[in-house]
Every structure is written in structure tokens, then in C-alpha cells.
Fold each of these.
Amino acid sequence: MPAASASRPEVLASSQAPAPSFESLIEQFQPAVYRFLYRLCLGNGHDAEDLCQETFLRAFRAYAALPADAQHRAWLYRIAYNLFLNGRRRPPNAELTDEVAAPRQDDDQRELVAAIGAFVGTLPAKQRAALILRHVEGREYCEIGGVLGCSEDSARANVFQAVKKVRARFGEEYRNR
Amino acid sequence: MKSHDARWILRSAQDDIDEQLLGALRDAFPEPARPSGLRVAYWDELESPIGTLRVATGEDGRVRLISFWKGEGGFVDELLDAGWVPVKDRRHNDPLERQLDEFFEGRRQHFDLDVDLSSVNPFTRSVLETTARVPFGGTDTYSGIAAKIGSPRAARAVGNALGANPVPIVVPCHRVLAAGGKIGGYARGLPNGLNIKRTLLGVEGVTIGL
């Protein structure tokens, strides 16, 4: 059980830099973790909130064992991603909620955006997460690999496959516009 | 046109399509419409005449948990098991700690605090709400509380419900005694639980025999 103040003296002893308190992790990363889950859940805010809460409960229990030089954001994202994988409650063909559909665009463009979002929801979870992390959040491949629990090359391959599928499905429509 | 020029034009067109597709992808996954907070329990500890008290208050200012029989790990585990992320913080517990200090110093007879009883079942909630109306310096009995909630034969169940009180002292389960003026039980069978019950009653000027 970690010290509830999460000051982790046993880790601090072997580290140059002091480990951040768990509270500071919440302040720094909770909004980003929620955003990531919200996108993974295709805009289902309730599922994203539940998963985000569970992410930080799990993280609290595991924080004492985390190396002080760990990449905290990738570590939290990985917990979040694994919880998403374990508890996927939405069917794979789920469509984006109205809340997610991009506003203020003409009908054709809005339909296309919604269709792309729904299509991404049908991709294998790893490719969906990789695509969102790379092309929506702009993360580096090494961090994406850390989140997905794979190598940087594998992360790159997952992004590549996802983009290839999106391009194959929607590229023609763009060519004809 | 040279072949490498044609390839460049095709490649450039492909890049353009990709850029449009990726732009649409970003539009498909916008920021959430509203931010989401965590359910956090701010906890702290304070010394008292009955030992170290550990207390937790939510962001909404409601008192969630008070314990004098659990160590730090057990207390934090209980918060986690209830789904609250524990954050050690004195500020959110200031009103509770101040009022507890005043109670133990004999300067407060009533706690002016909201409590969170969402973690208990309806029967226990009913027992605790009735117990909260037993005044400072007064006592009631398990059977008396049972009668007040309309379940006169449920004295034993009342005792169990009081044992599940998440916020003792503030909800004064120490004021509920066994029939015949006997002290009954306290603190889920903690070895010195009855001494603690006597101490709390003593703060209120109530003396109970062995």
C-alpha cells in the first residue's frame, strides 16, 4: 500500500529528481487522460468519466512501485488504455455521439467527419488508439508504444495500418470533391 | 513529362488527400464539450482524546469517512474501495477538524456539517439519520431506535447498522446503548471500543457503569 500522501520515500532515495506527489499528477494529467478516454470511447462522456476515475484509482495503488523516472503521462495513458480494452462496453460499430460530431460545417463535410469517426470506431482497438494518439493528439511514436505496450516500430505500424484503412475507405471521396 | 515529375505530382496529390483526411479525423475527435473531474476524497489525520482520528471530506464539503480504528493504509484502502481517489489535504477538512476539536474540548454540542451517507444501504441510512437526532448529553437504545424507524423488532439490525456508521462522532452512534442502561457495543468490536464509547459519552457528561 502506498503512503497515502504518495511521497514515496523509498523511490526518492534512488532518484535524482523528487517524484511528484500523486495530487500533482492528478492536476497535471487528469484532463488529458479524460480527453484520451473520451476520444477512445467515441464521445461517450459517461464511459470516459468512469474509466478515468478507475484509471486514477488503479494508478494510486500502483504509484509506490513506479520508478521515479517513469514517464507519467504515458504510464497513466497505458492504464487508461488497458481499462478501455478490458471494459469496452460499446459495440465495435458504434457511431459517434452528436456531441462529438464537429460543429459549423456544411452538411456534406459534417457527414464525412461523422463517418470517419464512426469508421475509426470499427478499427481494432490498438489501431484506433494509435491513430488518435498520433494524428489527433500529436504524440511521438515512442510514447505511443509506451501507451500501447509495444515497440516504437509496432506503434508506427499500427498508425500506418490505420491511416491506410482510412485512406482506402475515404480517399476516393476526397479525390472526387 | 518525365516520370519522376509524374510521381511527384501523384505523391503531392496523395499528401493533399491525406492532409484533408487527417484534418477531418481531428474534427471527428474534438475536445470534450465539458471537462470532467475526479471523485476525490481529501483526507487528513488529527490527534484526539480517543487517539488518532482519520477523516475524509469530499470536494462538495460533505464528510465522507471518520475512523479511529484503522491505520493509514486501511483508511486509504476504504476510500479507494468506495471509488474515491484519496488526496491528503488539510484545508478541505478544516471545518470538520475544528468542530471535532471543539467537541472534545466541550465547546460544541452539535456538528454543523453535511455528511455523505451514499455508501450505506437505505436501512442503515434510516438508522443513522434517526441516531443523528439524539441530542448531545442524551442517549437512546438499540430497541428505541428500532421503534423510531418503524421496525420495533430490529434492535440487533440497528446495532449492525450503527457498526457500519461511516462518520462516527458526527453521527453520534456512541449515544445508543443497550437495554437497561448497559453500554452495548462500539467500534465494530475494537478491543478498546467500549472505553472509547465511555470517553465520548464522558465528554457529554454521561456516565455509564460497567
Note: The mean pLDDT of chain A is 82.
Amino acid sequence: MPGLLRLMALLLLAACGRARSDHPSPPPYEPVSFNRHVAPIVYRNCAPCHRPGEAGPFSLLSYADVRKRADQIARVTASRYMPPWPPEPGYGDLAGERRLGDDQIALLQRWVREGAPEGPPAEAPAPPRFTEGWQLGPPDLVVEMRDTYTVPAEGGDVFRNFVLPVPIRGMRYVRALELRPGDKRVVHHANVLVDTTGSARRRDARDPGVGFAGMDVELESDRFEPDSHFLFWKPGTAAVTEPPGMAWRLDEGTDLVLNMHLQPTGKREPIRPTVGLYFTDEVPTKFPMLLQLEHDGAIDIPPGESHFVVADHYDLPVDVEVLAVYPHAHYVGRDVQGFATLPDGTKKWLIWIRDWDFAWQAVYRFAHPVFLPRGSRLEMRITYDNSEGNVRNPNDPPRRVVAGNRSTDEMGHLWIQVLPRQRDDRWVLQEACMRRRLEKYPGDFMAHANLGAALEQRGRGEEAIAEYRQALRSRPGSAAVLNNLGAVLQASGRLDEAIKKYREAARAQPDYLNASHNLGGALVQKGAFAEALPYLREAVRARPDDAADHNNLGGALLATGRVDEAIRELRRAAEIDPRSLNAHYNLGRALAARGLRREAVEQMEEALRIAPADPDARQALAELKAGRAEN
Amino acid sequence: MSSWAAIVALAAVLDLAGNRVDPLPRSGAGPAVLVFVSADCPIANRYAPELRRLQDRFARKGMAFWLVYTDPADTPEAIRRHQRDFGLQFHALRDPQHELVKATQATVTPETAVFVASAAGPRMVYRGRIDDRYVEFGRSRPAPTTRDLRDVLQALASGSAMAPRTTPAVGCFIGQ
């Protein structure tokens, strides 16, 4: 059932090199050489980005390349600007750590001090080799932006969102997504979001030019499935395949939304990102969930304040494994901490970034899932520096900073991807999330709406109804909530009330398909077939490839005596979904009503092949064979 | 500030046709603005629009702007392409032996050196950053708070007396 969820992105993360040294370290009297000591460090940790076509501004693929940059390499490795890896070591066991060991840094300094010698040619390692093109091989589907967006030559960083419709029929499971962002020197990072409701598309239509502006995107979501993975790209990361059983669902009519951080280079740069999708037939068995710690409502930082703390917590109602985290703040954020306090009081670090840099934000996956028992408290603590001393401060002189989605606003989020033991545990997690949200924001529309959906899922219809009514108090015209309220009323047997809510939903947002679909279905249930017809037709018009909609319409047409039209719709339903029992059964009845007995028998036999025990189909078939046509 | 009279003959500073060039102003000539760049330095490249603006504003006041490519690997052809890509219609020089680099003690790209003519020969009045947007690698302001080069050129244009000065520049190291 629908809910309104805030979506952020999924993440793909891969190693740009491991950190610990596994290379020979020279004894003090042995000269350091490129071939023996330096090349293995550089080829492994630097070359993945510092090569043609990648994000690094120059190549580091040979002695000549490295020799030319030796002083700079010594400087930026000593300061740990390169390779970029903001998390503090020892505060969370993160996968793909891209960090040099102290011994490696010392060795690079010594090599430069000693004149950056090449060493014996016989010891030269083979130059590094990389996969060209799609890292995971040819994708099953490539989705391209229709138009090119041009990044201006100069100015501040650009935050732009692009909507890419996915041309698939039916539903697919995605095991991997690979983003080719265009010129990697322009694209600093990108989140990929999955929009099932067209909300980004509508937003895009209102914004002139290609895509729409905004550092952060909030999407409406009709369901849980697509938003529980991190899809993220930053330079030097390879595409990651989801773990076994964790493919994610992609529906027909869905858009991918690229939320991109772009950096002007000094000249105009056209970009046209491409997404490669890799499908699988393996049905997912593991269903993660994204928990968001945040307290944007508490962000109100006076100018000059250098230690403003925003914290949030969340008490886990079930056991989970933590798979990944995605901290997010803008330019005034300085120190970002995420940790868990276990029921026995132990503090378990997830991540600590002591010198937050928006430009190097990333999703971090754990090397091994971090088990947290029920009753653990997840905590976020972000410190902001809104003083002149923070050179990244977007305001000069500093000004009051509040939460918002422009670069001069702030945010403080810690997204945590957790895997509960059971799929349905996610509704327990969601309920706790929304109750926590109501503590922070009493009366919050989104919290009441999502809490309603969670309670509905947990079979607590009356409580769900109360939450939806609370949500409607702040947004009486929310089609999604009116529709949800209708659905839970319908499920509780309150059909007339349900129909009333569906009608309000359809009135509030005439293009909101779920409402016309549900209204049609409810009217059918009530036996008001003629009244249902316009809504069912509307649903079919909007979703011409939905077997269930064609079947509903066909059933209502049959019930109102429009037999030929019914046969057409039901044939279409059976053609789209040959495994639909209802489509074959209804088609059998419609054909019988037209007197096409032989074909009607075929359909009933097909229905029974799908569901051999179905009593209605068995009876209908028996009657057909006995020569009694239905009317 | 150290003595700039140390600049004697420039033997290996070349234009894109391979001719020896001396960009430093001799008596009677207007100031010369040298901008050390390299084609593959992202920080230098991001300054292209600002450099264009400064040239538009001050070239007409008798100042000569020179792009000095310090990387011997930047061939005349690569330089022409770079200038075209970034719209930098400046005089371009190659300094493969780093004569100008050594004479000015420039260390990174982008870095600038401003010379005026004097009776004793070319005199450097400024060496350093274009502005303070970059504070160090990985730390930059959303916009500069001080536009050093513009202020220097403005002072020269208005004829005000100016003590020579230097500022630290942040950018890509000029390699050996």
C-alpha cells in the first residue's frame, strides 16, 4: 500500500585500492626506488582515477608521469588530501578503504627527498591495467538522457537533477546499476533515485532547461521497495553488484533521477549521463531498509557560531544488520559522527568524519555487516562551523543558516541501510521511525501519513485510519493519503466511506492513477459497474499494459452487458499476463456469453491449468461442457 | 622582496612558433602580467573566465598579458588547443627550461607575476595568487574574498605607488 516516503539514493561503492601496505618496505640503508617501492603504491591507489577518461586531472601511469608530479604527490599524500578518504580509521570497518598507511606516506616522502630515482629497470612492474567501458560488461539496458545539459564555465558548484524514464515492459529485478556520468572531471558525485510516481518528472516540467535545480531531492513514493538501496557514484568507484538475494525491483513507468553535483571547469562542459542496468531473474529474498537520522528542524545556526551541534537518535525495535551509511551535510558541516549504543552500553562506531567536506561525500559500505540487537540506539551528531574561520562557509560575512536545499542552506542527515531478519520487520522499523519523527515534529504530515501506512501493513486498521485522518488535518487535499485512507476503509469493510475517500482523492488530483484505479475497483465491489466504467477506462488509458486494469474493465463491461468490448479487454489482459487466472476465467465467461462455447472452454481449461483447484473455473467448465451457456 | 634585477637575458622562452621572446617590459613599455599555467591543471583552468575579464579590463590600459606554459610536455599544438577550449586569447609562451619560473620563483599554476619597466630593467611588483578562492588543496571558498591580482592591476592603472609584494598561490606544482 502506498506511503509517502522520503527517498534518497542507492550507492555503489568499490575499492580504489586497499590501504594497508602489502608492499616491500626498504630497510633504512636501501635507496627507495620507483620501480620497487613507489609504483605499487601509486598504481594501486592513484592510477584508478589518474588515467585518461577518469576524474584525476593527470595520469599517473608511468615513472615519467609520477616523477613529474613527485613534489605534489609528496605534499598531497602527507596532508591526506589524496587519496581522498575522509573517514577516520578505526571508527567503523568500511569496505574499499582508500587510504594510505603511515609507512606508505613516509616512503613517498623519502623517495622524493632522495631525488625520486627510478631504480633498476628489471624491477619495473607492469603498468596497471583497467577495464575499459562498462565495468560490469555490456548492460542489459542502457538508459540515456534525452538532452545534453551544459555546465557553465564558471561560478559555484552546480546541483542539478535529471529525469531518465526507463523503457521497460513489466517489472524487472536489478542486480546492478552502473552510472557513466559523462566527463568525470565535471561530475563530482551523483545519487541515483528511483521515482515510481512521476513526481520528479512533474518537477522537471516546471523548471526551464534540462533537468531541475536542487542539492537534495524529495520524491513521493508509492511503495517501499525501490528506495531501500543506495545508488551512488563518486570518482574512482566501480559499479557494485548487489549481494545475492538483494536485487531491487524496477517497475514499468518508473523514472531514474540523477541528483548530480557538477563543478565548473573554466569552459562550458556538455554532459549527458548514461545509466546501465543489469537485470536478474532471481527473486529478491533480502529486503533492506534505509533509516534516516536527521533533525533539520533544529538547524538554526547563528552567524559566527563555530560549534553548533545537531543530534538525532533512533531506538531499534528489532535486530538488524547495518550494511552501509551515507552521511550528508552541506558546506557549514564540520564534524560528522554516527554510532550505535548497544543495550549493554557499549559504543559501536559506524563512521566519524572529522573534517567534513561536502565535495567528497560518499556512501560507505561496511566490510562486514554490523549486527545491532534490538534495543540498540542509533545516534547521529553533526557539528557545524558557521564562523569566518570555516573557509567553505558559503556566506561572507557569515549569516544565519537554516535547513534547506540550496547550497547556502544546511542539512544534517545520516542515512543508514539496515537489513532486518524478516521482510515485514521493515514495517516495525518504519513505525518506530515515524513515531520518532513525531517526537521531533509534532503534527508532521509525512510522519502521520507514513505511520498510517506502517500500521495498515501491520494489520492495525483502526490506528491507521486515525493516523491518516491526522495527516489530512494538515494537508486535506493529499490525494495519496485520501487514497490510502480509502484503501484501509475498504479493507475494513467500510465500502461507502472508502468510495467517498477515493472520490475525494480523484478530485484532488485527477491524474492520480491509484485513486481512479481503486475507485473503479471499489465501485465494482459495490456492484455499481456502470458507475465504475469511467474510472476503469481511465486507469487502462493511463496504464495500457497493466493486465489487472484490463481485467477489471473487462469484468465491469461484461457485467453491464457490453460483451464485445469486454472480450477485447479480457483478451488484452490475458495477452499481457498469460498467467492471470482472473483474465482467463472472465474471458471464458465473456466468450460463453457471446455463444463462443469452444473458445470459452479453452479459456476455462487454461484457467484451471493455472489454478487447478479453482472452484469457480471448475464449475464454469463443467457447465460449459454440459452445454449450458452462461448468460 | 629579493632583487629582480637578476633577470638577465632569457635564452629559452619561446613563442608558439619557436621564436625567442622576452615578455618583460623594458623602459617605456607598460606593465607585463605573466600567468603561469599548464594545460592539465584544473585549478588554473577554472580561472580562465577571471583571466579573460582581467585582460579585457586592463589590456586597454597598456598592460600586456602573457600565458606562460611551464610544462615542457605542453606542445605548441596542445597549447593552441587549450587556449581555444578555454577562450584564452592571450599571447602564449613556453618556458620549458623554467627561466621565468626560476626568475620569479613561481611554484604552482596558476600563479602570476607582474612586472613594470624601470631604469634598472624590469622590476617585479607582484608574484602570487590571482585571488584567495583556493586556500589549500581540498579547501576552497565558494567565492574569493580578496582579488589580489585585480587589486594590483587596479593600483598600477591608477598610478598609485605600490610596494612589491607576494602572496602564496595554491595550485598544481610546477614540476622539475
Note: The radius of gyration of chain A is 29 Å.
